[in-house]
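Render beta-lactamase in 3D.
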Amino acid sequence: MLKSIFANALLICAVGVFACNAQSVALRNNIAEIAKESKGKVGVSMLNLETGDKLSLAGRDHFPMQSVMKYPIAITVLHEIDKGHFKIDQLIHIDKADYFDTYSPLKDKHPEGNFDISIRELLSYMVSLSDNVACDVLLKTLGGPNKVTAYMHSIGIKNIAVVASEYQMAQAWDVQFTNWVQPSEIIHLLKVSFKSDFLSPASHAYLWKILQETSTGPKQIKGLLPAGTIVYHKTGRSGTNEQGISAATNDIGIITLPNGNHLAIAIFVCNSPADMATRESVIAHIAKAAYDEAVK
């Protein structure tokens, strides 16, 4: 079983802060070895939502979210809908001025802009397809990124910052680091938001529907799991700079275990010179190691 470990396993055992056993130390050491393949900084946090078993590696450090931020944005939008400030089928007008040079299936479908789309569809584009234009339109509808951070803080998710839009992140390399989270804190958000009474029944169902339908990052958390495993997740990925460094290759979400329990897991690969295949393999192997331990 996964046990609580938030620092170096040897240090923990030495000072006796948390209980240690051979299985938990072995898993943490295995994850640390896998992480070395990235040649960057790796943060991992995981929690069995039913048993409370947990483990972290650099879980309290700050990592750039990239598109992982679309998960707290979606939660904030749905909260505003539940408060009656918007309706999920409310139409939003998209002008060509909303477009910028970025990944956007929505822009590809409507290259000239000048169309109306529901908030429901925008949420699906933003989460399931990781659409950057949809993200910024929703942020504008909310009133800006600070609305997301403020709502996260109001529900007890303190170690997170959503400061910049996708457009702003695209303007300069360092801007992406202003949108950060601790791996352990995004696990806290997964735990809180998975509860059936967190949002209205309709909003809760829609959030987890679009997370399950995420099509990005199939070789990350889902990559080595048994076929048919239900995974609700959100990926995040930066570009690569002139020095060959990729700032963020991330995947966070909830894995449904064979016994019906749920494993919340967050894996952040930061400032890595490794190629995409290696970074994704690191995420996939860490997720598989965690899954294998959880089903023992």
